[in-house]
Amino acid sequence: MYKGLAIIFGFLFIGETLSEIFSLPIPGNVIGMVLLTFALLFNVINVEDIEKEAEFFIRNMSVMFIPPGVGIISYWGLIKSQAVPIFGALVISFALTLVLTAKFVELLGGGEQ
Amino acid sequence: MNSIGIFLTVAIFYLFSKLYEKKRAFYLNPVMLSIIGIALILRLTGIEYETYMESARILSFFLGPAVVSLAVPLYKQKEIIKAYSKQIFAGIVFGGTLAILSAFYVAKLLGGSKEVLLSIAPKSITTAIAIGVSEKIGGIPTLTAVLVILTGILGNAVGIEMLDAFKVRDRVARGLAMGVASHGLGTARIILNDELSGAVSGLAMALNGVFTSLILPYLIELLQ
């Protein structure tokens, strides 16, 4: 277990360090994810070593968004004053993006049903 | 009192997860209900948000390793992702641009202020990138952070149901659309549903974050 955690936190640390040193607009965790993917592809890391730990983090990802979500209450005044354009744009843009992108990719052909 | 935040979060999430297991209706989405429930409890009891966050922050900290962990499903699905790399690339350019333009123009049409237009444009990408982009183009970073989360909650709550309603069966298309439209929160939900879709969603989230941060500053100049 500690080997897996050390690898995952290690790549997070490397990603964050690179993001800071080069002041990249990409967050450290995304850089860490890309680097770890390459490390797995080039057999630098064995997937068996991190599988269980990764699965645990991914399976519980939803709950991690709750605290920042509750933070919305601090901005209620700001949101309320522009409620119509904000909620209208969020809902319409989300629906359009989700459905049209899915249909577009499906039209390009794939077929993994 | 400094464990109140983590206690409230896990206990309420547990209760709403149980409820959701019993009756899988989109309006019972446990993330959405937990956020509303905790916000109400804080309001009713007068507990400050900062007091809540003192211990609840630990949970959000794990978003870092969770995003890094998305490398595992990506690696496991590498053959399929390679086979569909053209569709994935085209889908990100299409979906990423559509997410920006639709948010900007609908907000404009509904009378949004300039700050709202600029803050809402990067709403479909992961929080950390969105905040940076918002700052760069003259939006309000904190407002952007809130809008990013609201977009994610939408994806988490109704994304799969909408894809089903519109009869999208292609698993690559489903994952890509979720990652492009609602970043990590959408990914967190669809990966529980299907590992292939989840892997594509995680990849789409990362690539769309990079794509949006590169094109949005130029796109905004054209739009204004």
UniProtKB/TrEMBL annotation, chain A:
Its main location: membrane. The keyword Transmembrane helix applies. It comes from the Archaea. It is found in: Cell membrane. It is a multi-pass membrane protein. InterPro entries: LrgA/CidA (IPR005538). It holds the Pfam family LrgA. Keywords: Cell membrane, Membrane, Transmembrane, Transmembrane helix. The chain crosses the membrane at residues 29-45, 57-78, 84-105. GO terms for cellular component: plasma membrane. This is CidA/LrgA family protein. It comes from Thermococcus aggregans.
TrEMBL record, chain B:
It comes from the Archaea. One of its GO terms (cellular component) is membrane. The chain crosses the membrane at residues 27-46, 58-75, 87-107, 140-160, 172-192, 198-220. Its main location: membrane. It is found in: Membrane. Keywords: Membrane, Transmembrane, Transmembrane helix. It is a multi-pass membrane protein. Coiled coil: none annotated. This is CidB/LrgB family autolysis modulator. It comes from Thermococcus aggregans.
